[in-house]
Amino acid sequence: MSRRDAEMGTGTSDRLEAILADAVPRVCSAAVALIAVDGSLTAAAATGELVRYADATGTPAAERPPARRDSIFDLASVSKLFTTVVLLSLAEEGRLGLDEPVAAWIPGRDPRVTPRRLLTHTAGLPPTRRIDLELPGADHETRMAAMLATPIAHPVGGPYLYSDVGMVIAGRVAELAGGAPLDALVRARITDVLGLPGTGYRPSSPSRIAATEWKPERPGPGCVRGVVHDETAYALGGVAGHAGVFATAGDLLAFGEALRLGGGPLLRPGSVAEMVRDQGAEGAAFRHGLGVRLGDPGITGPLGPGAYGHSGFTGTSLVVDPARGLTVVLLTNAVHPLRGREGIGELRRAVAAEAHSLKACPSI
Description:
It is built from 13 helices and 10 strands. By secondary structure, the protein is of the alpha+beta class. Strand 1 (about 30-35) and strand 2 (about 40-50) form a beta hairpin. Helix 2 runs antiparallel to helix 13 (about 345-360). The longest helix has 17 residues, at about 345-360.
């Protein structure tokens, strides 16, 4: 499926529209969902407003641009899938080995830490590190150096411990092995290859972008819009291995379809097979591949153990179910104007359930 097919296809679903309408604005201020069945866009819906609040008080914004299918959302941790694909493409070229110590690129790192362990969250690194608070006023290079030096805090090799720090290091390994900044690698190896003009780090204009959280510590009034929501990615200049990618639903669907069909033209089928193979990480509520969650009930709903993907803190998710021929995208701004709103999990599962029903009854 091309990006244009995903953006301009005629798929409709009254049920999908009703699911999103029930969630907006209770769960999120804007939502876009796309469902492809066997490569055809079968259902699409967009509702809500990209900017509903001028600040955190609930004051309505002077203008409320409507959400559209070509609106752009902060993907948050769905960005990890882009970092994963870049790393796997570099491994295909022999520029890195998944089981080689990352100390080959980052001297001083524990030799037990490998790209595979970073991608499976079994490297023993802490979940997060607020480098912006530790080093206020420091430049991005100084903060990245501190992140790369984060000490091991848990057993290496498992159990599973979700770590943004690990994915930041994974992104830096990609840069060093690939000889280019991460945003350039994502552009050259993913977005240019698939023709995804609405996807990338640090978007140039906020006009089509859904606003996220009100962050009074950030420059400028009002809620964050067009700048990465994640504090660590922001502190590192907006480009990091764990967060920072913005995309349209159509672009993300095309990316997911490429993975569903075996990786071409991004990866070889063997690399995708390894990506979605259970890597044996223990201690999670789901199985884990390389950078992807396998059968995560929080995003796959009734799709079962063969479905894989990732979610993002801002209220985003991508799910691919090869056995059923499904690719499911949900983009929201559930942190607008403040985090902690309830219902995003139910919304993700409801969209996945709708995809399941469309595969069972494709004429609907």
